[in-house]
Write a structure and sequence with these properties.
Blueprint: H1 6-19, E1 23-26, H2 31-43, E2 47-49, E3 59-61, E4 70-71, E5 75-77, H3 82-85, E6 90-91, H4 94-105, E7 113-121, E8 130-136, H5 139-148, E9 150-151, H6 153-159, E10 166-171, E11 195-199, E12 204-208, H7 213-216, H8 219-235, E13 238-240, E14 242-248, E15 254-260, H9 267-271, E16 281-286, E17 290-294, E18 300-303, E19 308-312, H10 322-327, E20 333-335, E21 338-340, E22 345-346, E23 358-359, E24 365-366, E25 380-384, E26 401-409, E27 419-421, H11 425-434, E28 436-438, E29 443-444, E30 450-452, H12 465-476, E31 486-490, H13 510-521, E32 526-529, E33 532-535, H14 551-556, H15 562-576, H16 585-598
Parallel strand pairs: 1-7, 3-20, 4-29, 5-6, 5-11, 8-10, 10-12, 15-26, 26-31
Antiparallel strand pairs: 2-3, 7-8, 7-9, 11-12, 13-17, 14-15, 14-16, 17-18, 18-26, 19-25, 20-25, 21-22, 21-23, 23-24, 27-31, 28-30, 32-33
The protein binds oxalic acid (OXD) and manganese (II) ion.
Manganese (II) ion binds next to loops.
C-alpha cells in the first residue's frame, strides 16, 4: 500500500528497524484479510474453528495462563512530571521507560509479521472520533481490532496526508529463532516482562509482553480512556468508562443514559437489558466507553468509540443477558472458554447444563466433578456491535446522542442505596468521586476489599485523579444546569443478613431506570435525604415482582443508615488524603456539607 501520510510512513519504518520483523503488512480491513488471518492461526494451532452448525463464523483461542487479564501493576503512565500522574497511576520516568522498552523491542518481532493497523475510535468522520495506528506482531490483535474498532483503508483515507493519529506499538514479546515453532499463545510469560505504557504528552502507547484484551487491543482502555482522557482534559470534553443506552417510555419518548460501573458489575448486561416492564424498551449504543462533547445546544452528546463488545463470558446467560446470548451465536471470537466435544463452547453461569466432558480453557480434559472451572473467570467474547439484537439504529450517528442522565455505581453489600439522585452537578461529581466496588477478576494482582473507584476510572486514569475530578467540576460550569445530565448513584448489590442479594437485578433493573426517567420528566416522586433524593415509598414500580421483593425489603435498600454513613465519611476522608492539594475545593465542601446534613 502506498502511504500518503509521510510521517506515518516514517514512523512505520522506524518501528520496523527497531523490531526487525520478517515482513510488514498494512491492514486493509477487508473480510478476505480477516479470514486469511484466521486461517493462518488455525493452521498454526493458535485458533480452533467452532462447529459451523452450532456457532457459524466463531473461533476459540486459549491464552497462556500468565496472560488472562489486564495487568494493572504493569500499566504505566509516563508523564514528564511525576506529580501529573498522581496517586492512582504507576508513574515511571518516560526517558528511562523508553530506554528499557527499546531494549525489549530491539528484534522482538523476529520471525513474525509486523501488522500496521490504522483504526478509528468512533464512526469515521464524526467530529468526536479520533484515529490511531497500532503496530502489532499479533494476528489475534488484528482480527480483534477489526471487530472492536473500524480499521483499514477507509481510516487511512480519513487520515489523509497529514491527519493526527495516536501511535500505538504492541509486541507479544516472543521473537522466533530460525526454525522455532510458535507456541499457541506467544507472550512474555513473566509478569515483570509485561509493560502497558502510556506517554500522555506524546499521545503514545507502548505495550509489550501480553497478547490479552486491554493490554494488547490498544484502542480500548489505553487509547479510548487513558490517552483520550488527557486529550479530553486539554480539549474540554469527557472520555469515560461508561455504557450508553437508549430507553423509550410507553409514550414513545426517548432518553439516552450513560453509566459508569466498574468491571464485573454487570455493565454489558445493563447496556443490553431487556426491561421486564410492559411498554418500556431499552436499546444499546455502547457497553464500555463513552466520549462526550457539548453540542451547540449546550447538551452533552455521546458516541461509542468502539465497534464491538469485548464482554465477560462466564455468567452470561439467557437470564443475565439474553441479547448477548443471541449476539454470540455467530461471528464471534471466544477466548478462554471450554470447548465441548461437538465443537461448541461452554462456560460457567451460562444456564446450560455442563456436558460430561470438554476441553477446558487451558486445553486439558475436563469433567464436571474435576474441581476446576472450564472457563477462566475473565474469559471473553469479541463480537461486532452491529449484530447485537438490541443495538439502536442510531448507534453510529456521527453527531452522537444527547445524554439526559449519568448512572454511577459499584458493587457494595451495604450502606449505598439502590438508587440516589444527586442534588446538582457538583454533588453528582462528589458521588462519582466516592464510588467504590469490591475487587474484580478483570485485573491480576489486586488485594480483596472495597476500593474507591471514581467514575469507575481508577484502572484507566491517564493523569492525576484530583485533576480529573476538577475537570468534571469544570465541565459542569460550561452549560446551564438544566441542560446537564442528572447524575444517579445506583447499587444493585445490597445484601441481607444471610449474604443474599436483596434486589433481583438483571431485567428488573429497568424498574430503577423507569424511576430515573420519571424524575427526568418531572413525574417521579422522591424524598430528600441527607445523602440525596431517594425514591419515595411506592415510587419504584414493583408490579408483578412482589414474590421477588417486598416493599419492606425495598425500604431496607432505600434507607439512610446514619451510623454506616458516618463510617463511610471516615473512609472517604482517608481516601481523599491521597489527592493532597489537588483535591478540588468543591469536593471538600461537598463532604463537609454531607457531614453536616447527617448530624
Ligand atoms: C473491561 C474492564 O474489560 O472494564 O471492560 O475491565
Ligand atoms: Mn470496562
Amino acid at each position: 500500500m502506498n502511504l500518503k501520510h509521510k510521517e506515518l510512513a516514517a514512523w512505520i519504518e522506524e518501528v520496523r528497524e527497531m523490531c526487525k520483523p520478517d515482513s510488514v503488512h498494512i491492514a486493509d480491513g477487508s473480510k478476505e484479510e480477516y479470514n486469511k488471518m484466521l486461517q493462518i492461526m488455525i493452521d498454526a494451532g493458535l485458533a480452533t474453528a467452532l462447529n459451523p452448525e452450532k456457532r457459524p463464523g466463531c473461533f476459540l483461542f486459549r491464552s497462556h495462563p500468565s496472560d488472562v487479564a489486564r495487568v494493572e501493576n504493569r500499566t504505566f503512565i509516563a508523564s514528564k512530571k511525576q506529580e501529573d500522574a498522581g496517586p492512582d497511576c504507576n508513574w515511571v520516568d518516560p526517558e528511562e521507560l523508553k530506554a528499557d522498552m527499546r531494549k525489549l523491542y530491539d528484534g522482538c518481532m523476529k520471525g513474525r509479521v509486523m501488522y500496521v493497523i490504522p483504526f478509528s475510535m468512533g464512526p469515521i468522520g464524526s467530529p468526536i472520533s479520533k484515529i490511531g495506528v497500532e503496530i502489532s506482531d499479533s494476528p489475534y490483535v488484528v482480527i480483534n481490532m477489526a471487530i472492536m474498532t473500524r480499521i483499514g483503508e477507509k481510516v487511512l483515507g480519513a487520515l489523509g496526508a497529514d491527519g493526527e493519529f495516536v501511535r500505538c506499538i504492541h509486541s507479544v514479546g516472543k521473537p522466533l529463532n530460525d526454525g522455532e515453532k510458535d507456541s499457541s499463545w506467544p507472550c512474555a510469560p513473566s509478569i515483570d516482562q509485561k509493560y502497558i505504557s502510556h506517554f500522555p504528552e506524546e499521545r503514545t502507547i507502548w505495550s509489550y509482553g501480553s497478547g490479552y484484551g486491554g493490554n494488547a487491543l490498544l484502542g480500548k482502555k489505553c487509547f479510548a480512556l487513558r490517552i483520550a482522557g488527557v486529550q479530553a482534559r486539554d480539549e474540554g470534553w469527557l472520555a469515560e468508562h461508561m455504557l450508553i443506552l437508549k430507553i423509550t417510555d410507553p409514550a414513545g419518548k426517548v432518553y439516552y443514559i450513560c453509566g459508569a460501573l466498574p468491571s464485573f458489575c454487570g455493565k454489558t448486561n445493563l447496556a443490553m437489558v431487556v426491561p421486564t416492564l410492559p411498554g418500556w424498551k431499552v436499546e444499546t449504543i455502547g457497553d464500555d466507553i463513552a466520549w462526550m462533547k457539548f453540542g451547540e445546544d449546550g447538551r452533552l452528546y455521546a458516541i461509542n468509540p468502539e465497534a464491538g463488545f469485548f464482554g465477560v463470558v462466564p455468567g452470561t446467560s439467557a437470564q443475565s443477558n439474553p441479547n448477548a446470548m443471541k449476539q454470540i451465536e455467530r461471528d464471534t471470537i471466544f477466548t478462554n472458554v471450554g470447548l465441548t466435544d461437538d465443537g461448541d463452547v461452554w462456560w460457567e453461569g451460562g444456564g446450560i447444563p455442563a456436558p460430561e466432558h470438554l476441553i477446558d480453557w487451558e486445553g486439558n480434559d475436563w469433567t464436571p466433578d474435576c474441581g476446576r472451572p472450564a472457563a477462566h473467570a475473565n474469559a471473553r467474547f469479541t463480537s461486532p456491535a452491529a449484530q447485537c439484537p438490541s443495538i439502536a439504529p442510531e448507534w453510529e450517528d456521527p453527531a452522537g446522542v444527547p445524554i439526559s442522565a449519568i448512572l454511577i455505581g459499584g458493587r457494595r453489600g451495604g450502606t449505598i442505596p439502590l438508587v440516589n439522585e444527586s442534588l446538582d452537578w457538583n454533588h453528582g461529581v462528589f458521588l462519582g468521586s466516592i464510588m467504590g466496588s469490591e475487587t474484580t477478576a478483570a485485573a491480576i494482582g489486586l488485594a480483596a476489599g472495597v476500593r474507591r473507584d471514581p467514575f469507575a476510572m481508577l484502572p484507566f486514569m491517564g493523569y492525576h485523579t484530583g485533576d480529573y475530578l476538577q475537570h468534571w467540576l469544570n465541565t459542569g460550569k460550561k452549560s446551564d444546569s438544566g441542560k446537564l445530565p442528572k447524575i444517579y448513584f445506583v447499587n444493585w448489590f445490597r445484601k441481607d443478613e444471610n449474604d443474599k442479594f436483596i434486589w433481583p437485578g438483571f431485567g428488573e433493573n429497568s424498574r430503577v431506570l423507569k424511576w430515573i426517567v420519571e424524575r427526568l420528566s418531572g413525574i417521579g416522586e422522591a424524598v430528600e435525604t441527607p445523602i440525596g433524593n431517594l425514591p419515595a415509598p411506592g415510587a419504584i414500580d414493583l408490579c408483578g415482582i412482589e414474590d421477588k421483593i417486598s416493599e419492606e425489603s425495598l425500604a431496607k435498600i432505600l434507607d439512610v443508615d446514619k451510623a454506616s454513613w458516618l463510617e463511610e465519611i471516615v473512609s472517604i476522608k482517608e481516601n481523599y488524603k491521597k489527592f493532597g492539594d489537588r483535591l478540588p475545593e468543591e469536593l471538600s465542601e461537598q463532604l463537609d456539607a454531607l457531614e453536616k446534613r447527617l448530624s
